[in-house]
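Memo to structure team: turn this sequence into structure tokens by end of day. - J.P.
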Amino acid sequence: MKTELNDWSSFWNFSVTYVLSQEPEENSSLSYRYGDCVVRGRIVQDFLAKTLSPSDFNSGTFVMVCGTKSFENDMTAYCRHLGFSDTQIHRF
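Reply from structure team:
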């Protein structure tokens, strides 16, 4: 999926933030390219509120979520709290 995300991120209306909660610092740059937005730590609601400002999205904005069931449930709840509808949240 990273190849596709990299391709899409070349468009003006698409951005990617990679959040790494468990990858060690010394290995983290091996699969990322210059300019990638990489953040280390756990995703919490405050982080999403800063990253996904409601003024920056509209009905055509989508959020893609991938992880464990509990992670997906948490992220879906956080996104709903920010005003995203279920049709804007894609779990894979």
